[in-house]
Design a protein that fits this description.
This protein has helices at residues 4-10, 18-21, 115-120, 138-149, 166-173, 248-257, 262-280, 289-295, 302-323; strands at residues 30-32, 44-54, 59-67, 71-78, 86-93, 100-103, 107-112, 126-127, 130-132, 155-164, 181-195, 198-215, 224-240, 259-260, 329-334, 339-344, 349-352, 358-361, 377-378, 380-381. The chain has 383 residues and is α+β, with helices and mostly antiparallel strands.
Length: 383
Amino acid sequence: MTTSRDRCMIFVFAIVQISILLSSGCPKNAWSAGSGEGQPNTNTQTYVTYKYIDPMAHMEVFRMLIPKGWKAEGGVSWSADPALPVQSGFRFFNPGGSEELNFFSAHAFFWTNNTLFLTTNPPGSLRFGTRVAKPVALHEAFARTIIPGAKRSMSRMTIVKENPVPELAGLARGVSVQGVNASAEAGKMRVVYGESGKQMEEEFYAAVSQFVTQLPGSGPGSGYFINYWYIDHVFSFRDEKGKLDSRSKIFQTMIYSLKFNPHWVAKVVNVKEMLAQSYIKGIKAIGQMGQMIAQAGSQMREDQQRAWEQRQQVNDRIIQNFSDHIRGVERYNDPRAGKEVELPAGYGNAWANDLGEYIVSESPSFNPNIHSNQHWEPLTPAR
């Protein structure tokens, strides 16, 4: 059964196809959200804006809110794989605790029932930069790829529960395309394991999506299919055993606040098309990525812009609908930023400053302007 908390954790992935944007092989660039020292002794939480700049494209990729004092590791790199031209991964964590949010690698594969092709391109080989492999079920993807790929020093791992997440499967399938049979299986798996003398609890989310196209053969009855399939939409949140659910407000706030830069997305799509054309022409793109990225436009074509706007409208409706029913977060008007912002529910009081930082507190008498060199403005709940 899918809970409202499950749904809020997958909203971010409706913004763009995560199989393109969040994939494997991130560099370990570190960033700190500043110090949490000097915070008042009340039930108060401060959030700051984290922005990531693509070092090759020299463009902002995304921004999101993270708790003050947390650190970020990860980054974006590019490859000559037309199925996944962008490789990235991120870890957001509390250096003084055990809680963290992770975006893991996506994996692209190719499969077919064309025996001649499989003779020349056997499983394990590359086809246009994509690994040839037979599709797997979601449980196998968790067990053989996703959890081992998290690179935890696990001891005595136990699966606590495993449930489907239909909404995530719908996002993984995407919009229908004529001639392509799209299917997806998505879900979550919660595990408990020992690590560094502590009992840890982690919940993984992922989807296995398949996009099958039937092609004609050279003679009657000789048709075959090609299947581009993915293990994607992979993310997790973890903490010490027994504490994970109590951190849901923090994780929800981070997930809700993540926004991609549409101009960077356009560059990714355009580079993807350039790579595909290069492979078709038999031109090796390895060593030319810098030139391709520089040449690729950062403006969306009319059809790309239309698709982006349609997707954003759907996302906004989904988020609005569930925001009104999930008690984990509340919407506030931020007049300085000219937008609504999702912040943890249950505090009752929220403030913002010009730096894009937010404070929530349970105390009605708390004033962040006291003992602060920043000017904080109170926020009103969105109606």
